[in-house]
Amino acid sequence: GQQVMQIPQYQHVQEGEDFTTYCNSSTTLSNIQWYKQRPGGHPVFLIQLVKSGEVKKQKRLTFQFGEAKKNSSLHITATQTTDVGTYFCAGQDAGGTSYGKLTFGQGTILTVHP
Amino acid sequence: ETGVTQTPRHLVMGMTNKKSLKCEQHLGHNAMYWYKQSAKKPLELMFVYSLEERVENNSVPSRFSPECPNSSHLFLHLHTLQPEDSALYLCASSSSVAFWDYEQYFGPGTRLTVT
Question: How many CB contacts within 8 angstroms connect chain A with chain B?
Fold first, then answer.
């Protein structure tokens, strides 16, 4: 079945440093979503990418979808302590017959030291 | 955020108990989901309902039984669980199950401990 791998599993940064997490799928995706889960909280939707090579920005966050639609990245510029949490990517298999089925990566846990 | 609510927030149950988790969404969505989140494992999709009809059952053991009486409510009935079923159970909803339209809104989760 489809697998979504995310690296790194953990990332510790000093406040002000940049951070990037990478997501790779074993199959071509129809779209990819990114979620953030604060410690003790629940996943919160950040963004969805649909088009090959798509790049979207939200303030200090930049999201990319690979040309082959099998990988994606989230980059945070100049991290702040409010960025702490686990960042998940989630994709839907383009060749799948099941709809509404997102496969989540295992997440990257980001800690930011002030 | 109160778009998706879940009760109870915490549940401790023995392996022979029967309990139910409840989820309610106030967003007017047509699709609802149950996920299991275990430590150090990815979020696992358990069930998907679209307009109250189950469209996905992701090979979940029969000791978990979902129920969707209407598009606003979703239940997960639990019986004879195992200790490895201890996890955070998350409910989510989306406008539809179409891939271009299913940004998912998660509830706060129920932390389940099976003793």
Answer: 64
Q: Quick one: pLDDT at residue A13?
A: 97
- Do the chains contact at B103 and A45, CB–CB below 8 Å? yes
Distance of CA A71 to the CA centre of its chain: 10
3-state per-residue secondary structure call for A10-64: EEEEECCCCEEEEEEECCCEEEEEEEEECCCCCCEEEEEECCCCCEEEECCEEEE
Local structure of residue A18 (DSSP, 8 states): -
Residue A62 one-letter amino acid: T
B48 to A100: CB separation less than 8 angstroms, yes or no: yes
What DSSP line would sit under A86-97, residue for residue? EEEEEEEETT-S
Tell me the per-residue pLDDT of B82-110, one tens digit each, with 9 for 90 and over. Answer: 999 999 999 999 988 776 667 899 999 99
